[in-house]
Amino acid sequence: MDAENNSSYIQYPDFLLICFPNYQSWQHWLSLPFSLLFLLAMGANITLLLTICLDNSLHQPMYYLLSLLSLLDMVLCLAVIPKVLDNFWFGNKSIGFSACFLQMFIMNSFLTMESCTFMVMAYDRYVAICHPLRYPSIITDQFVARASVFTVVRNGLLTLPIPILSSKLRYCARIITNCICTNLSVSRLSCDDITFNRLYQFVIGWTLLGSDFVLIVISYSFILRVVLRIKAEGAVAKALSTCGSHFILILFFSTVLLVLVITNLARERIPPDVPILLNILHHLIPPALNPIVYGVRTKEIKQGIQNILRRLQ
Q1: Which residues cross the membrane (predicted)?
Q2: Does any domain span residue 44?
Q3: pLDDT-derived band of residue 30, with 50, 70 and 90 as boundaries?
């Protein structure tokens, strides 16, 4: 009986990632916009990080938090997109077991780290607008350091069981109908019951992302209430402009994530290639647009970039 059970599944040396199964011939064309977005994301984030690092006037808590967001964006991009492009350009569809579960961990943990960073940034804007006199004593470098450690530890520890649970499953197949190793795409290949695996990801994902979103909404509710009470001419526009960039970034992040969730829930009515495409774009669009939005809308960052360009001339 044991021998019969052991032969009912096979442990393969690696998985195969089959991107866009219904549109294999389109992959070379798709690689062009993906490559451009990837280069834009990496270049914009590196420029932003260098600007904040080299310009002493930007050595402030708000810009340290923006640096953390850029680092998270870059790691997410590097964990996903090079493998996707390798698949498109060279047909290298295989990915090792360990590499697959590492990619899964990075995607789950760094996604929630980004959400937590947005929450901390919302609190930063709340203190700046609602308690401006207390801002220097509350939002300090030590606060940013503690918030960064909290962000990494909380999300890293709570999402770690997701790839661990998946790695303990017995697999009957190795063909993943996706470009990346998402938990559901991989665990679906298992011969075992994956109910607990899926339930844990659902509960942890919505708990972390949901709590961050609620706190962001509360912060902006307080900000809006205070701003509407300001009667000085031009004060409302000035107050809103200080958190406008942050609000736009949250909008990018939330919209792409919401569309991705909806398409996965309604996957029976939507072609399977659509969620795959949205999965990739979610790792490209926010990282590419985040530093550009801050660079365009923030006078201090634009000035810092100009100062660096002058030094290079």
Answers
A1: 30-50, 62-82, 94-111, 203-227, 247-266
A2: yes
A3: confident
- Lateral strand order in the sheet of 175-176: 94-96, 14-17, 175-176
Spatial distance between the Cα atoms of 114 and 256, rounded to a whole number of angstroms: 13
Write out pLDDT tens, residues 112-161.
Answer: 999 999 999 999 989 988 898 999 999 999 999 999 999 999 999 999 99
145-to-117, 181, 203 alpha-carbon distances in Å: 12, 31, 28
Q: Which tokens is 3 given?
A: 């021998």
2-38 residues labelled b (16+ CB within 10 A) or e (exposed) = eeeeeeeeeeeeebebebbeeeeeebeebbeebeebb
Give CA separation, 69 vs 151, 160, 222, 293, in Å: 11, 20, 24, 13
DSSP assigned state of 176: E
**Which helix (H) or strand (E) element contains residue 14?**
strand 14-17
**φ, ψ for residue 96 (rounded to 5)?**
-65, 160
Q: Which two tokens stand for residue 81?
A: 């997109």
Two tokens, residue 21? 């199964």
Task: Note whether 265 and 14 are within 8 A (CB).
Answer: no
CATH code assigned at 293: 1.20.1070.10
Number of domains in the chain: 1
Alpha carbons 122 and 135: distance in angstroms, whole number: 13
How far apart CA 208 and CA 221 sit, in angstroms, is 20
Classify residue 178: in a domain, yes or no: no
Q: Which of 21-30, 101-110, 274-283 has the lowest mean pLDDT?
A: 21-30
